[in-house]
């Protein structure tokens, strides 16, 4: 799936200027004269359509996507780095001037919902458009309206549903809306998606002009994710929010678990998988280009790296139409000992707790594998020739970095680790990361370096390359970020199957499709042969934990963990773990490989839902503030 092309970007740029300000939650249009002009012709109405698209949040953006740094996957240098995404991850959220505020202000998604409502109210006025195209446009906007509501409810919980615009004559009492109960929110989102699905095309025909437009597989996959979210513990019988009762006496959270929600989710996931398969969406497999030589291990690694970084690849169900990235900020200052690039920072890093999530080479958690020396994992070991595709032979690094699964080596850069690509495309001649003080990937300036000694390799396109020491020397490949890819959908399906039916072959099958694409043994083989508790995968609770770890590994750094750990109700435990790294200011191995606390997070129950800005609650006293704020 390709992103919106340059023509559509230009239309968005011009069209967004047509959107005016409005009253609370942008439900009363105040630019009526402009609206009449916008829907006088097909060409101007099309511009308004792309205005509706323009409100899509910047997914996987380090600065503006709370899920990018707020899920415990990445940390950075403090106080050198004060971007909103990092401040958010440090627990600096507040209700006076909320960080990454999607509720109100210039970034409010209610403004996007308002534009969607205006479009739906007026598209019938356009005469030089055929009915089939009109129905398709309406379906796209209904999807966008549903997605904006879904984005908000995952962050804030119960939200006001803005089903239609109020007339220009609406009084102040009309716009002082209440928050709707959480089940009503999910039901409305699904209703909009169902209405959209009927009239969306199954695939884009003219990619030169329409790449990035919403299709039926996109809408059905997002519907599946919505229903899995609705069925999950945070939103399904959550007693922690039983006191969220508004001034009408209406409870905003349900407190009674509904097992049938998992049936709806399971069926929606399978329907989405089927239509994806029908339209050629499949798990990505790397095909080397001319001059590229890869071992089986490197090929497995590239299956994972390029499922994200390969532009418009076959696994992408939905790539962000407004957001292309090159993730230069994640890139180490150098792979090459002869070149130090000045255009990258390399200061966004996974901590050791996240690094330890990845499996052993046997496909098991490192603490579960009876063949893996868990207790000695922080000791130092020299690599042998057998490790050459992962670690520089004879190089000394932590035992933690040895004998791990391919997704570990695909996703994580580390001191002594091999790095395929970046100008070297033969597996016999790869770069080696050397991250100790004084080495080429280590600290060069005190504002740009990895604070943990690890780097998020997965998000860096393997064809990015440094060509000289000047800032302009970083040749990069931009790619649209995947909002949802097929592996995500497979694991949602496996999760819903397990939750509704318990462990069975259907669930195992879809977990194993994801694992085996990366050369990881099947769940059954891994646990029955190498696990300390070999029967864990046969029990519902055990398989639940396996699936949760599987999602965190497969979707690492893709802004999914943030939402997953919240809906599973495990975020309080995970996000209060100290962020640990190596002692990166050291030269000798024995000094470098000592654990160092980067910072101690303080994640509270109130952080599970975002605050509504104080001023908004004052303006509209019908709004109930989220607990703790």
Structural notes for this entry:
The model is unreliable at 1-24 (pLDDT under 50). Strand 8 (465-466) and strand 9 form a beta hairpin. The chain is mainly alpha-helical. It is built from 23 helices and 12 strands. The protein has a domain at 6-65 and 100-214: Serine Threonine Protein Phosphatase 5, Tetratricopeptide repeat. The strands form 6 sheets. A two-stranded antiparallel ribbon has the order 1-10. Helix content is 38%, strand content 7%. The protein has helices at 6-16, 32-38, 42-54, 66-69, 84-89, 109-122, 131-156, 172-175, 182-199, 207-210, 216-231, 260-278, 296-309, 352-355, 406-411, 486-501, 505-517, 523-530, 540-554, 561-567, 571-574, 589-592, 614-619; strands at 316-325, 380-382, 396-398, 412-414, 418-419, 431-432, 454-456, 465-466, 474-475, 479-485, 579-582, 595-599. It is globular. Helix 6 (109-122) runs antiparallel to helix 7 (131-156) and helix 7 (131-156) runs antiparallel to helix 9 (182-199).
What's this, in brief?
The chain has 23 helices and 12 strands. The protein has helices at 6-16, 32-38, 42-54, 66-69, 84-89, 109-122, 131-156, 172-175, 182-199, 207-210, 216-231, 260-278, 296-309, 352-355, 406-411, 486-501, 505-517, 523-530, 540-554, 561-567, 571-574, 589-592, 614-619, and strands spanning 316-325, 380-382, 396-398, 412-414, 418-419, 431-432, 454-456, 465-466, 474-475, 479-485, 579-582, 595-599. InterPro entries: SusD-like_N, SusD_RagB_dom, TPR-like_helical_dom_sf.
């Amino acid at each position: 799936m390709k992103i919106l092309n340059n023509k559509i970007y230009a239309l968005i740029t011009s069209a967004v200027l047509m959107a005016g300000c409005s009253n609370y939650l942008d439900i009363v249009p105040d630019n009526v004269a402009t609206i009449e002009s916008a829907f006088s012709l097909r060409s101007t109405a099309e511009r308004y359509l792309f205005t509706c698209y323009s409100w899509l949040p910047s997914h996987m953006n380090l600065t503006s996507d709370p899920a990018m740094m707020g899920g415990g996957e990445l940390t950075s240098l403090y106080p050198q780095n004060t971007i909103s995404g990092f401040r958010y991850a440090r627990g600096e959220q507040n209700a006076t001037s909320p960080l990454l505020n999607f509720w109100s202000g210039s970034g409010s998604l209610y403004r996007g919902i308002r534009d969607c409502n205006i479009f739906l109210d007026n598209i019938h006025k356009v005469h030089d458009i055929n009915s089939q195209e009109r129905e398709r446009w309406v379906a796209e906007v209904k999807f966008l309206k549903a997605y904006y509501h879904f984005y908000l409810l995952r962050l804030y919980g119960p939200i006001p549903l803005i089903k239609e615009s109020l007339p220009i004559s609406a009084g102040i009492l009309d716009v002082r809306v209440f928050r709707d109960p959480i089940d009503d929110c999910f039901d409305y989102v699904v209703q909009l998606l169902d209405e959209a699905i009927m009239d969306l095309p199954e695939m884009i025909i003219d990619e030169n002009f329409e790449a990035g437009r919403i299709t039926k597989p996109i809408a059905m996959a997002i519907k599946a994710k919505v229903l899995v979210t609705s069925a999950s513990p945070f939103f399904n019988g959550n007693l922690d929010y039983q006191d969220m009762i508004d001034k009408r006496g209406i409870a905003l959270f349900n407190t009674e678990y509904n097992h049938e929600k998992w049936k709806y989710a399971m069926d929606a996931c399978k329907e989405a998988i089927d239509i994806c398969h029908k339209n050629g969406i499949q798990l990505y497999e790397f095909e080397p280009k001319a001059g590229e030589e890869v071992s089986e291990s490197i090929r497995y690694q590239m299956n994972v790296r390029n499922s994200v970084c390969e532009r418009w690849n076959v696994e992408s169900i939905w790539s962000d139409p407004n957001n292309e990235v090159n993730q230069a900020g994640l890139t180490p200052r150098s792979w090459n000992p002869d070149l130090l690039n000045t255009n990258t920072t390399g200061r966004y890093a996974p901590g050791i707790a996240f690094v330890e999530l990845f499996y052993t080479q046997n496909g098991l958690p490192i603490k579960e594998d009876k063949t893996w020396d868990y207790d000695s994992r922080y000791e130092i070991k020299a690599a042998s020739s057998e490790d050459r595709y992962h670690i520089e032979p004879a190089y000394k690094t932590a035992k933690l970095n040895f004998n791990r699964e391919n997704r570990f080596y695909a996703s994580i850069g580390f001191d002594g680790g091999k790095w395929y690509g970046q100008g070297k495309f033969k597996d016999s001649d790869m770069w080696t990361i050397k991250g100790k003080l004084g080495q080429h990937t280590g600290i060069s300036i005190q504002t740009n370096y990895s604070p943990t000694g690890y780097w998020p390799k997965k998000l860096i396109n393997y064809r990015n390359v440094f060509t000289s020491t000047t800032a302009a020397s970083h040749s990069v490949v931009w790619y649209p970020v995947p909002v949802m890819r097929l592996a995500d959908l497979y694991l949602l399906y496996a999760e819903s199957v397990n939750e509704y039916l318990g462990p069975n072959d259907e669930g195992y099958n879809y977990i194993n499709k994801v694992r085996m694409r990366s050369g990881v043994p099947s769940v059954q083989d891994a646990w029955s042969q190498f696990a300390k508790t070999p029967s864990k995968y046969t029990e519902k609770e055990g398989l639940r934990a396996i699936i949760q770890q599987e999602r965190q590994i497969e979707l690492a750094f893709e802004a999914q963990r943030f939402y997953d750990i919240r809906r599973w109700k495990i975020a309080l435990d995970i996000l209060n773990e100290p962020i640990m790294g190596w002692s990166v200011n050291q030269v000798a191995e024995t000094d470098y490989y000592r654990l160092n606390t980067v910072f101690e997070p303080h994640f509270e129950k109130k952080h599970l839902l975002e605050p509504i800005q104080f001023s908004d609650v004052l303006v509209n006293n019908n709004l109930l503030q989220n607990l703790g704020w």
